[in-house]
């Protein structure tokens, strides 16, 4: 059972989505550009001092550091949602391999083994197409979790 602090995750998720969306918007770019232009314009006023340079370096470092977490949160959530949509399509399609529903939980070796099967299926399908045959057969794949 996963323990969650009430509303904290949802609030952070909403914040992360809004900030990531806004920063990916042209207005977000223009704001960042405006900050840089303002910094450059103030250079002569502060005689291009070390402190003047430190301000922009520190600000960009802090903003970048925080944005990494916001963007990663948004990316994780979108990835989970997309995976669920794909899982539902696999589950709903007649003839689809339900063993593929949770591939993201497999090891790299298990994923590579399944990929090899799909590469071989693709090779056979291309060969069949060259011979004028169809390439829509739904062959069974071996289950690489120790069950066949």
Features:
148 residues; mainly alpha; 2 domains; 4 helices
How does this structure look, described?
There is one protein chain. By secondary structure, the chain is an all-alpha fold. It has two domains: 8-92, no CATH class; 103-148, no CATH class. The chain has four helices and no strands. The protein has helices at residues 8-23, 26-42, 50-92, 108-130. Helix 1 packs across helix 3 (50-92).
Describe the secondary-structure layout.
Blueprint: H1 8-23, H2 26-42, H3 50-92, H4 108-130
Order of helices and strands: HHHH
Binned, the helix content reads 55-70%
**Given the C-alpha coordinates, what overall shape results?**
elongated
Low confidence ranges:
none
In total, the number of domains comes to 2
Structural class: mainly alpha
Q: How much beta, percentage-wise?
A: under 5%
What distance lies between the first and last C-alpha atoms, to the nearest angstrom? 30 Å
Q: Sheet with the most strands?
A: none
Number of strands: 0
Oligomer: single chain
Count helical runs: 4
Gyration radius, in Å: 25 Å
pLDDT averaged residue by residue: 86
